[in-house]
Design brief:
about 140 residues, mainly alpha, Multidrug-efflux Transporter Regulator, Chain: A, Domain 2, 7 helices, about 65% helix, transcription
Length: about 140
């Protein structure tokens, strides 16, 4: 086997992903599936390593696989406007998630404060909030 050729295992290891990820990306059309060589193995090359690293990095930055597919298809073109639009949308999504996570942290901090102030024999306010934040009796809720 030439030194520039990779088996699926070597490709996955080199790119820092699992073999199943390679196969999944192939099914999604994000990575080509090379023909089998005479030895029965599929042989990948450095361009496949670069593609896998691109996919992995894009996901680490919050891009969905649909976004990655769009970016992959746009990478062959010079449509910077569309790439920028996809990236701007991802930034908005991440900022919304960050705002939501911050609100969750504030709510949890409030529960911790309530818990610290409650007497040891009282019901735990954290558990009470998780069980049911609606304070009406169950019979009234069902009615």
């Amino acid at each position: 086997m030439p030194t520039h050729a990779f088996t699926v295992r070597k490709l996955a290891d080199t790119a820092g992903v699992g073999v199943e990820a390679v196969r999944f990306y192939q099914r999604r059309g994000l990575l080509r599936e090379p023909a089998r060589e005479g030895n029965g193995f599929r042989q990948y090359d450095e361009s496949d390593v670069r593609r896998l690293r691109f996919i992995k990095r894009a996901q680490e930055l919050g891009f969905s696989l649909n976004d990655v597919a769009s970016l992959v298809s746009l990478s062959a073109e010079t449509d910077q406007v569309r790439v920028r639009e996809i990236t701007q949308q991802r930034v908005l999504d991440i900022r919304q998630r960050a705002t939501h996570l911050e609100a969750m942290a504030v709510a949890l901090e409030g529960l911790v404060t309530c818990c610290q102030k409650s007497a040891n024999g009282d019901h735990c306010p954290i558990i009470a909030a998780l069980v049911d934040h609606d304070t009406r009796p169950t019979e009234q809720v069902a009615a």
